[in-house]
Design a protein that fits this description.
Order of helices and strands: EEHHH
Strand content: 5-15%
Structural class: mainly alpha
Oligomer: single chain
Number of domains: 1
Radius of gyration: 14 Å
Distance between the termini: 33 Å
Strand order of the largest sheet: 1-2
Helix content: 55-70%
Length: about 90
Amino acid sequence: MDQVRAVEGQRLGDLNTATLEIELSPELRRSNVASVLTHEIAHFLVYEADLEIDGDLEEKLVAGLTPSLACLIRDNQRLLAWIRERLRE
């Protein structure tokens, strides 16, 4: 999955830490939605883990994890179904 880069000052996605909702830019191309959403999910994981790392380091960590997280989701549908079932128990 290709990394999507924002133009200076433009946010493609945002995690609202008060509501834990992810908002995507309405200007985002459909072909980039999955990548940006996965990127924001990685920010959610960092926030929920309470890692307390500064913005630049967090962005570097999230940018590095996003492609692997996207591949995990894309390539392991049976695993994700299994996890969903176990979480319901």
